[in-house]
Amino acid sequence: MDPHPQYEIEELTPDLARLRIAFVNVYFLGRPEGEASRWILVDAGLAMGAAQILRVAAERFGDDTRPEAIVLTHGHFDHVGALEPLLAVWDVPVYAHTLELPFLTGRADYPPPDPTLGRGLMARLSPLFPERGINLGDRARPLPADGTVPGAPGWQWIHTPGHSPGHVSLFRHSDGALVAGDAVTTTRPESAFAVLTQRQELSGPPAYFTIDWRKAHRAVSALAALSPSLLAAGHGAPMRGPAPMASLTVLAREFDARARPRRGRYVQAPAVTDERGVVALPPPPRSRGIRWGALSGVAAAAFAGTWLIRRFGRHSRVTK
After folding, report:
1. Residue 240: CB partners within 8 Å, gap ≥ 6?
2. What is the dihedral of CA 70, 16, 85, 185, to 10 degrees?
3. Would you kindly state where each structural domain of the chain is located, as residue ranges?
4. Residue 310, Cα to own-chain centre: how many angstroms?
5. Which pairs from 188-194 meet CB under 8 Å and 24+ separation?
6. What is the pLDDT along the chain (320 residues), one digit of tens a residue?
7. With contact defined as beta carbons under 8 Å apart, do 143 and 152 qualify?
8. Is the separation of the CB atoms in 169 and 178 below 8 Å?
9. Which is nearest to 144 in space by CA: 97, 110, 202?
10. 266 to 24, 249, 280: CA distances (angstroms)
């Protein structure tokens, strides 16, 4: 049996590449130019992806390489999972928005997910997803106030909260490349089938972890106003060209009908957060089926994981 998990790297521009780890993406920003390369990693994916990230970094930038920094769009479990093993190899700073730092420095846990949102398996399983913050100590640093991205000249970060308090997206004006994190997704994240098959569908943020829908709407509108030429999200395959970008404008205009749920814990009243973490939460939803729905989803999730491994095989694949 091949000891190395499946991974695939997709070149989006000469200095931007996507690595998909199961259902989440991480991005390498920087041109592969050997040992002199300067590059950063955007997000850290799932814990199971640490070996893939290290292997791809070595292949792209050299065996002894390390990034200038790791930049987080936000700190949910599926975007920080591999940080501990990565930081054991790379002694580098981890940058995030100041409102995300409480969840990265051991001061606070995230608001709990709302499994009543969305009818897919991923939503039903959300009570099993970790919501606890992590503690990076002094490695966690605030992004520069001037909007620049450390280690990535030409890129700027944009505060796009709603899915999390300090969520950011990265944008480059010179070519219109947008790394959106979870502010928008290019598959339906509540559906395990859509996630596993990577069925492309421009969607709002993952509903079960979104804590402020008004801010989430404003975030999508802000991204649409950028008129990006390339949309690289945290979940789903990249989209490029006029038609997908037009659909981003439509999503912003029709957000309440297309993305915002009609009811749910955070739909009418958001979670209140500040630089200390969570200040106030609306009451939890009342649903007798939540616990049983989550537990019954475990078996389906195990099946889905087996299907994923068989679907994508054992060997790496490079897409250009």
Report:
1. 229, 230, 231
2. 90
3. 8-268+285-314
4. 24
5. 188/120, 189/23, 189/122, 189/235, 189/236, 190/117, 190/118, 190/119, 190/120, 190/122, 190/123, 191/118, 191/120, 191/121, 191/122, 192/120, 192/121, 192/122, 192/300, 192/301, 192/304, 193/120, 193/121, 194/120
6. 344 444 579 999 999 999 999 889 999 999 997 656 799 999 999 999 999 999 999 999 998 889 999 999 999 999 999 999 999 999 999 999 999 999 999 999 999 988 887 555 554 554 556 678 999 999 999 999 999 999 999 999 999 999 999 999 999 999 999 999 999 999 876 555 556 666 778 999 999 899 999 999 999 999 999 999 999 999 999 999 888 789 999 999 999 999 999 989 999 999 999 999 999 999 987 654 444 344 444 444 433 443 343 443 333 333 33
7. no
8. yes
9. 97
10. 24, 24, 11
Residue 179 CB neighbours (<10 A): 31
Structure tokens at 77: 């479990």
CB neighbour list of residue 94: distance below 8 Å, 6 or more residues apart: 69, 70, 71, 72, 83, 87, 104, 136, 139, 140, 141
> Cα separation of 207 and 312, whole Å?
27
Write the burial class of residue 54 (CB in 10 Å: 0-12 exposed, 13-18 middle, 19+ buried). middle
Residue 108: both structure tokens together: 């606070």
- CATH 1.10.10.10 for domain 8-268+285-314, yes or no, is no
- Indicate the length of the chain as a whole number: 320
> What's the rounded Cα separation, in Å, for the pair 148 and 135?
24
Strands of the sheet with 317-319, listed across from one edge: 140-142, 94-96, 69-71, 40-42, 24-29, 16-21, 8-13, 317-319
Single pTM value for the model: 0.86
In single-letter form, the type of residue at position 243 comes to A
Assigned token pair, 40: 């950063």
Amino acid of residue 94: V
